[in-house]
Every structure is written in structure tokens, then in C-alpha cells.
């Protein structure tokens, strides 16, 4: 199965190891992709766990689930990022070395597409990420003016990047 984040990689080799806790995203862009995959697969415990510590108390899995109840997330486009990697992820590193990235920040510009009540919407955001406890965490984001309901031609290439026409691919998820 192709990954939900539209990376063209298999889910098992892309976001699934992050969602299952077998790996840690090494860049903010990887975390962004894995959070999208979590929304698409309704794994809101992962979404909550990847917020910064200061933001987590404001949210709950039930709230995240309720807010996304009618949404079917299906395509992601990742734009600009500085691609700041974690430098202290190897096993056996001392705690002093693990602090190298602590407080590092990055931004990721993305557009996510979803269906809600048969309508197509886009969420365009520039997200702010910070390293806490040696892991990238989502803090907040700035929504762009082009968020909301969009029209997209049924005969255009699908937004997910499959190469199929939209009507023969993800548009079927709206039904």
C-alpha cells in the first residue's frame, strides 16, 4: 500500500514505522508527513503525542477525533522546509550529546486535501516545529488565505500523485 502522505513510498517504509513507534522522524518534514498519515488513518493518539509539551494539555484524543470526524484526508503536498536533521539519534549517545538539537526549530509549508460532506477542501499551512527531548514536535501553524473549499477538475491528474485522473482515483473517496 502506498503511503498516505503521497511520498510514493510504501506505507511500511515511510510513515508506518513512526506511527507504530518503531522509528523517530529525523526532520520536521518527516514529522509533518507522519502526522498527515495519522490523520488519514485516524490515529489521533499519535497526533496528540507529536504536539509540543505546552500544547498537549490544551488537546485530547477525543477532541482531535471529533474535529476530524467528517474529514477524509487523501493528499499532501509538502513545500518549503529548511530540512534541519536531528544529529543525535544514534544508539549509545550520551545525554549531553542528545541536547545538541534541543530547541532547534524548523518550518514546513504544506497543503493537505480532504473531503468533507462530498466537498473538496484544502488546508494550506506553514507549520512551526521544535525539538523537545530529542524529537521533532509540532507547535502551531499559520493558515494561508487559500484554505477552504476548492474546485478541482475531475479529468485533471489526481492530487495524490498516482498519475490517474482525479475522477478515477481519490474522487471516489468523496462518495
From TrEMBL:
Residues 27-141 form the YchJ-like middle NTF2-like domain. It comes from the Bacteria. This is SEC-C motif domain-containing protein. Transmembrane segments: none annotated. PANTHER family: ADENYLATE CYCLASE-ASSOCIATED CAP C-TERMINAL DOMAIN-CONTAINING PROTEIN (PTHR33747:SF1), UPF0225 PROTEIN SCO1677 (PTHR33747).
Amino acid at each position: 500500500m502506498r503511503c498516505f502522505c503521497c511520498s510514493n513510498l510504501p506505507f511500511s517504509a515511510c510513515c508506518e514505522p513512526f506511527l507504530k513507534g518503531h522509528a523517530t522522524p529525523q526532520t520536521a518534514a518527516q514529522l509533518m508527513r507522519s502526522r498527515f498519515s495519522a490523520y488519514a488513518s485516524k490515529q489521533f493518539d499519535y497526533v496528540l503525542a507529536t504536539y509540543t509539551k505546552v500544547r498537549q494539555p490544551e488537546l485530547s484524543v477525543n477532541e482531535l477525533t471529533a474535529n476530524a470526524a467528517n474529514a477524509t484526508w487523501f493528499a499532501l503536498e509538502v513545500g518549503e522546509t529548511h530540512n534541519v536533521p536531528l544529529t543525535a539519534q544514534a544508539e549509545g549517545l550520551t545525554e549531553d550529546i542528545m541536547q545538541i538539537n534541543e530547541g532547534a526549530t524548523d518550518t514546513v509549508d504544506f497543503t493537505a486535501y480532504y473531503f468533507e460532506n462530498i466537498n473538496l477542501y484544502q488546508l494550506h499551512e506553514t507549520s512551526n516545529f521544535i525539538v523537545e527531548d530529542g524529537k521533532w514536535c509540532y507547535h502551531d501553524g499559520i493558515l494561508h488565505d487559500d484554505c477552504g473549499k476548492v474546485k478541482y477538475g475531475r479529468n485533471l491528474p489526481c492530487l495524490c500523485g498516482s498519475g490517474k485522473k482525479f475522477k478515477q482515483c481519490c474522487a471516489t473517496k468523496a462518495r
